[in-house]
Amino acid sequence: MNHRAPVFIITGGQGQCKTTFLHLVLGLIVGLNVRVRGVIAPGHLRDGRRSGFTLVDLATGEHEELCSIDPDPRCEAHGRFYFRPEGLVFGRRALAPPDPRETDLMVIDEVGRFELQGAVWAEQLDHLLAHPHPPMVWTVRRRLLDTVVERWKITNAVVVDVGAASVMATAEAVMDAVWEWREAQAFSPVPAPPVPGDRIAAPPQCADAAAGAPRSTPVILRRCYGPDE
What we know:
Helix content is 27%, strand content 23%. It is of the alpha/beta class. The protein has a domain at 7-40 and 95-186: Rossmann fold, CATH 3.40.50. Strands 1, 2, 3, 4, 5, 6, 7, 8, 9 and 10 form a ten-stranded mixed β-sheet that branches.
């Protein structure tokens, strides 16, 4: 088993289209038989401000409202958002540790301050990183990047800054990691039970994707986080 599959971290400032960048990367690999699990969380705006998020399960294409700014006594309050119990159950199920022989890529959109406080997806991240896992792609706000890397002791991060990185080259780097993972699993003697679903929902097209990111820029920005740094 490969215990050190890379964690690609798509990062940028608030409102800098991290989720859109991720949509486009997934759109480039969707036809390549990549078995993707995890969640993507498109946001909603109201009066120019973020008003909530919807979760999409990438293995099934199903979706569920995760949270909104509208108060609800049934919901968990985190910051100014109220997280629906149905949305949390939906997301936690989608982020359960995958069958490593039936999953090529795990996606978590996004890892942020609520997870750093031990809420929302924190427990799922702990479980994912405690097991052999396929390559993963996370989205993380730039100002939280180093704290997230330190909190989950990620020693093999590949940092992708949406302000400078190429969508195409990032997709190629993710696919390289997927092929390496598949090769490692082909020689693994460990049997694994089946996992439901191996489909990925086709991402919607977003006109403002990776706005301002020149296509001739380097593939990705790499940082190695290790015990000597």
